Amino acid sequence: QVQLVESGGGLVQTGGSLRLSCAASGRTSSTYPMGWFRQAPGKEREFVTAISWTGDNEYYEDSVKGRFTISRDNAKKTVYLQMNSLKLEDTAVYYCAAARSHALLRDPRGYEYWGQGIQVTVSS
Protein backbone atom coordinates (compact mmCIF):
# COMPACT_ATOMS: atom_id res chain seq x y z
CA GLN A 1 0.00 0.00 0.00
CA VAL A 2 1.04 3.54 -0.73
CA GLN A 3 -0.34 6.52 1.17
CA LEU A 4 -0.43 9.92 -0.47
CA VAL A 5 -0.98 13.17 1.41
CA GLU A 6 -1.47 16.51 -0.34
CA SER A 7 -0.64 19.87 1.21
CA GLY A 8 -0.32 23.49 0.17
CA GLY A 9 -3.83 24.26 -0.95
CA GLY A 10 -5.85 27.27 0.07
CA LEU A 11 -7.37 30.53 -1.11
CA VAL A 12 -5.63 32.75 -3.63
CA GLN A 13 -6.65 35.65 -5.86
CA THR A 14 -6.72 35.41 -9.63
CA GLY A 15 -3.25 35.73 -11.06
CA GLY A 16 -1.69 34.37 -7.91
CA SER A 17 0.33 31.24 -7.28
CA LEU A 18 0.19 28.15 -5.11
CA ARG A 19 2.46 25.16 -4.74
CA LEU A 20 0.93 21.81 -3.91
CA SER A 21 2.95 18.97 -2.47
CA CYS A 22 2.17 15.27 -2.39
CA ALA A 23 4.14 13.16 0.07
CA ALA A 24 4.22 9.39 -0.36
CA SER A 25 4.69 6.81 2.35
CA GLY A 26 4.25 3.07 2.74
CA ARG A 27 5.35 0.64 0.06
CA THR A 28 7.16 3.23 -1.98
CA SER A 29 10.00 0.97 -3.09
CA SER A 30 8.09 0.47 -6.31
CA THR A 31 8.48 3.16 -8.88
CA TYR A 32 5.33 5.02 -9.81
CA PRO A 33 4.55 7.62 -12.41
CA MET A 34 2.57 10.33 -10.62
CA GLY A 35 -0.29 12.56 -11.62
CA TRP A 36 -2.49 15.39 -10.45
CA PHE A 37 -6.21 15.49 -11.10
CA ARG A 38 -8.87 17.97 -10.05
CA GLN A 39 -12.58 17.94 -9.51
CA ALA A 40 -14.82 20.98 -9.40
CA PRO A 41 -18.32 20.86 -7.89
CA GLY A 42 -20.74 19.11 -10.22
CA LYS A 43 -18.00 18.05 -12.62
CA GLU A 44 -16.09 14.88 -13.25
CA ARG A 45 -12.54 14.42 -12.09
CA GLU A 46 -10.20 15.66 -14.79
CA PHE A 47 -6.56 15.18 -15.62
CA VAL A 48 -4.23 18.10 -14.89
CA THR A 49 -0.68 16.83 -15.26
CA ALA A 50 1.54 13.78 -14.85
CA ILE A 51 5.22 12.98 -14.59
CA SER A 52 7.21 9.86 -15.34
CA TRP A 53 9.11 7.99 -12.65
CA THR A 54 12.42 9.50 -13.69
CA GLY A 55 10.94 12.95 -14.09
CA ASP A 56 12.14 13.08 -17.68
CA ASN A 57 8.66 13.30 -19.15
CA GLU A 58 5.83 15.62 -18.22
CA TYR A 59 2.27 15.73 -19.53
CA TYR A 60 -0.19 18.58 -19.22
CA GLU A 61 -3.82 19.27 -19.91
CA ASP A 62 -4.06 22.05 -22.46
CA SER A 63 -5.67 24.63 -20.17
CA VAL A 64 -2.77 24.53 -17.69
CA LYS A 65 0.15 24.42 -20.13
CA GLY A 66 2.52 27.28 -19.50
CA ARG A 67 0.97 28.00 -16.09
CA PHE A 68 1.41 24.78 -14.10
CA THR A 69 4.59 22.79 -13.59
CA ILE A 70 4.88 19.30 -12.15
CA SER A 71 8.09 18.07 -10.58
CA ARG A 72 9.24 15.33 -8.25
CA ASP A 73 11.97 14.64 -5.73
CA ASN A 74 12.28 10.87 -5.46
CA ALA A 75 14.69 11.10 -2.54
CA LYS A 76 11.99 12.94 -0.59
CA LYS A 77 9.20 10.81 -2.08
CA THR A 78 7.36 13.99 -2.94
CA VAL A 79 5.68 15.34 -6.05
CA TYR A 80 5.00 19.04 -6.51
CA LEU A 81 2.55 21.08 -8.53
CA GLN A 82 3.53 24.70 -9.02
CA MET A 83 0.49 26.67 -10.14
CA ASN A 84 0.98 30.18 -11.49
CA SER A 85 -1.38 32.71 -13.09
CA LEU A 86 -4.30 31.04 -11.40
CA LYS A 87 -7.76 31.55 -12.86
CA LEU A 88 -11.23 31.26 -11.38
CA GLU A 89 -11.75 28.06 -13.34
CA ASP A 90 -8.82 26.42 -11.54
CA THR A 91 -10.94 26.25 -8.40
CA ALA A 92 -11.33 22.57 -7.48
CA VAL A 93 -10.26 19.83 -5.15
CA TYR A 94 -6.86 18.64 -6.34
CA TYR A 95 -5.80 15.02 -6.00
CA CYS A 96 -2.42 13.43 -6.45
CA ALA A 97 -2.26 9.84 -7.57
CA ALA A 98 0.25 7.07 -8.24
CA ALA A 99 -0.10 5.27 -11.56
CA ARG A 100 0.26 1.58 -12.25
CA SER A 101 2.33 2.24 -15.35
CA HIS A 102 2.99 4.90 -17.92
CA ALA A 103 -0.10 3.83 -19.85
CA LEU A 104 -3.34 5.76 -19.29
CA LEU A 105 -1.62 8.63 -17.49
CA ARG A 106 -4.42 10.99 -18.56
CA ASP A 107 -7.13 8.62 -17.34
CA PRO A 108 -8.09 8.18 -13.66
CA ARG A 109 -8.45 4.44 -14.33
CA GLY A 110 -4.70 4.29 -14.83
CA TYR A 111 -4.00 5.17 -11.20
CA GLU A 112 -3.77 2.78 -8.29
CA TYR A 113 -3.40 5.05 -5.27
CA TRP A 114 -5.01 8.40 -4.50
CA GLY A 115 -4.59 11.12 -1.93
CA GLN A 116 -7.53 12.51 -0.01
CA GLY A 117 -7.58 15.71 -2.03
CA ILE A 118 -6.98 19.32 -1.14
CA GLN A 119 -9.05 22.40 -1.86
CA VAL A 120 -7.76 25.16 -4.11
CA THR A 121 -9.98 28.21 -4.34
CA VAL A 122 -9.25 31.10 -6.69
CA SER A 123 -11.17 34.29 -6.01
CA SER A 124 -11.59 37.50 -7.98
Structural write-up:
The protein has 124 residues and is mainly beta. It has strands at 2-7, 10-13, 18-26, 34-39, 46-51, 58-60, 68-73, 78-83, 92-99, 111-114, 118-123. Strands 2, 4, 5, 6, 9, 10 and 11 form a seven-stranded mixed beta sheet that branches. The chain has a four-stranded antiparallel beta sheet with strand order 1-3-8-7, with no helix packed on it. The protein is globular, with a radius of gyration of 13 Å. The model has no long low-confidence stretch (mean pLDDT 94).
Helix and strand arrangement:
Blueprint: E1 2-7, E2 10-13, E3 18-26, E4 34-39, E5 46-51, E6 58-60, E7 68-73, E8 78-83, E9 92-99, E10 111-114, E11 118-123
Parallel strand pairs: 2-11
Antiparallel strand pairs: 1-3, 3-8, 4-5, 4-9, 5-6, 7-8, 9-10, 9-11
Short description:
Helix content is 0%, strand content 52%.
Structural features:
124 residues, mainly beta, seven-stranded mixed sheet, four-stranded antiparallel sheet, 11 strands, 52% strand, globular
- Helix residue percentage: under 10%
The fraction of residues in strands falls at over 45%
Decide which structural class fits the backbone.
Answer: mainly beta
Radius of gyration: 13 Å
Straight-line distance between termini? 40 Å
Main β-sheet description: 7 strands, mixed
**Shape designation:** globular
How many individual helices? 0
Say how many strands there are.
11
Parts with pLDDT < 50 across at least 5 consecutive residues: none
H/E topology pattern? EEEEEEEEEEE
Q: What is the averaged pLDDT score?
A: 94
